[in-house]
């Protein structure tokens, strides 16, 4: 039995929505964000460009995942299926995108933390200095990608282990398709486990990167939330409101990949250790991951009021009534310049 058509429908639909929604968000940032977003525009644009690239990588990979005993079969089902060299490289890039996603989210939270809690240090991100924030995500992306490529790559042991499953359930010849995946151990004739340390090391690297980035997000989020709700801090209502919108947008944009990517992928890393043969259920991981780049820009569009009002055609009904009042109030009350937002 081949791959279910529902998985393909989900992947192609998510790809179409991802590209169109992210292009819409790009337009809104360039045309509607204004100067109040300051350097943070660079952060937002970088993230949506990542989402578009991720959508293309995902559609060029079209992964099929099958959890079989102590291993996970991950094979390419796109036009690159029968090109092992390029297919395996694309699979590694696809997996490395997880690290890039969560590490970029961590840098977003770091920027929000500095902007709200330590605005006097924002000079570190002035001008082209903002691009220094992209160095850690790039490094983590490279580490994760290389780890997947070298630790989870195919070999004869894995081919023999997944051969029957690939043929009987997916009608695929394991010797001809591009595949990879962790295989934590095999069983000897006496039943003892023979651990495969490169695969275990690869899983350890992935889990470590996820833990570091998620911890950074949680710590920065907690401190930023507490500061935004401290009414003793002098901050204009407009500035406080925009900061809260951006904060909650980031919060939901962190929750989304946790639900659609990291919890499923993290579970997929641990399940084979206990030899739970979940089989085709592993394809839910691929389906969930394909939803991420489609849903992420929708969060920003509808959480930030100036974007939401434009999309829902409410902008022109409110601007004329409030612009003059807000401008006067902003000039009188704001003690934090807009460019730090």
UniProtKB/TrEMBL annotation:
Gene3D superfamilies: Rhodopsin 7-helix transmembrane proteins (1.20.1070.10). One of its GO terms (biological process) is sensory perception of smell. The keyword Transmembrane helix applies. Signal peptide: none annotated. It is found in: Cell projection, Cilium membrane. The chain crosses the membrane at residues 6-29, 41-65, 85-111, 131-152, 200-225, 246-264, 284-304. Pfam families: 7TM_GPCR_Str. Keywords: Cell membrane, Cell projection, Chemotaxis, Cilium, Glycoprotein, Membrane, Olfaction, Receptor, Sensory transduction, Transmembrane, Transmembrane helix. It comes from the Eukaryota. InterPro entries: 7TM_GPCR_serpentine_rcpt_Str (IPR019428). Belongs to the nematode receptor-like protein str family. An odorant receptor which affects chemotaxis to the volatile odorant diacetyl. Specifies AWA neuronal cell fate via the odr-7 pathway. This is Serpentine receptor class r-10. It comes from Caenorhabditis briggsae. The lineage of its organism: Eukaryota, Metazoa, Ecdysozoa, Nematoda, Chromadorea.
């Amino acid at each position: 039995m081949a791959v279910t058509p529902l998985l393909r429908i989900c992947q192609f639909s998510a790809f179409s929505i991802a590209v169109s929604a992210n292009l819409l968000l790009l337009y809104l940032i360039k045309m509607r964000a204004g100067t109040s977003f300051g350097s943070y525009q660079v952060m937002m644009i970088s993230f949506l460009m990542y989402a578009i690239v991720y959508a293309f990588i995902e559609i060029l990979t079209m992964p099929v995942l099958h959890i079989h005993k102590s291993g996970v079969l991950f094979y390419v089902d796109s036009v690159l299926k029968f090109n092992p060299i390029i297919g395996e490289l694309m699979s590694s890039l696809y997996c490395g995108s997880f690290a890039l996603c969560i590490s970029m989210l961590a840098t977003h939270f770091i920027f929000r933390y500095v902007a709200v809690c330590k605005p006097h240090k924002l000079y570190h991100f002035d001008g082209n200095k903002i691009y220094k924030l992209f160095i850690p995500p790039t490094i983590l992306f490279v580490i994760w990608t290389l780890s997947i490529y070298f630790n989870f790559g195919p070999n004869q042991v894995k081919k023999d282990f997944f051969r029957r499953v690939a043929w009987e359930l997916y009608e695929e010849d394991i010797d001809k398709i591009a595949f990879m995946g962790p295989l934590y151990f095999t069983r000897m004739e006496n039943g003892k486990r023979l651990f495969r340390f490169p695969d275990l090391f690869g899983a350890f690297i992935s889990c470590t990167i996820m833990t570091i980035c998620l911890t950074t997000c949680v710590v920065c989020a907690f401190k930023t939330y507490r500061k935004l709700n401290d009414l003793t801090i002098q901050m204009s209502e407009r500035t406080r409101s925009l900061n809260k919108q951006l904060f909650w947008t980031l919060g939901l944009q962190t929750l989304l990949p946790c639900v659609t990517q990291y919890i499923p992928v993290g579970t997929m890393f641990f399940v084979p250790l206990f030899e739970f043969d979940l089989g085709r259920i592993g394809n839910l991981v691929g389906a969930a991951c394909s939803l991420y780049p489609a849903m992420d820009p929708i969060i920003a569009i509808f959480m930030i009021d100036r974007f939401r009002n434009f999309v829902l055609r409410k902008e022109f009904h409110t601007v004329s009534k409030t612009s003059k009042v807000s401008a006067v109030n902003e000039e009188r009350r704001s003690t934090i310049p807009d460019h730090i937002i």
